[in-house]
What we know:
mainly alpha; two-stranded antiparallel sheet; 164 residues; 41% helix; single chain; 7 helices
Amino acid sequence: MPHIEVSQETLDRLKSLAEPLVDTADTVIARLIAAQNGHHNERAELAVPTVKAETRRSATVTRKRGRKGERARKGERTPTEGFYEPLLQVLAASGGHLPAVDAINRVGQAMANTLNEVDRARLPSGEVRWRNSVRWARQRLEEQGKLDPKAPYGVWKLPQAARP
């Protein structure tokens, strides 16, 4: 693979456009080129093309998908239950509540060494599988009474009794 030199400022800008634990410098640059060529979506500030545009350009931008868009087989991905404890720990460590995006990112950081290639693959919806699994874990923990169902929209919160 060819190597290029970029300034620290350019590298920092590339990092700000990357999705943690998913993107490489190459995938970010490929998306920027696609955006320059007219492939835009509602997140124009990130210059990220839509999933359909990215899929059509699969010769240029390779994406890790499951077996031709099929569901992951049992045992291939981290089960939703595997995200329960990390999510509860992240919320407890942050005083009992966090914006959803921050909670998801921190769970990803906590589980970085645990997540496998199937977890890091994109779903047909375009979302990364492990991020979707964290959302499902939050839903199930809420149903079990371990998260506050009355938390404001976009905020994940431990119930008063479970707070540190």
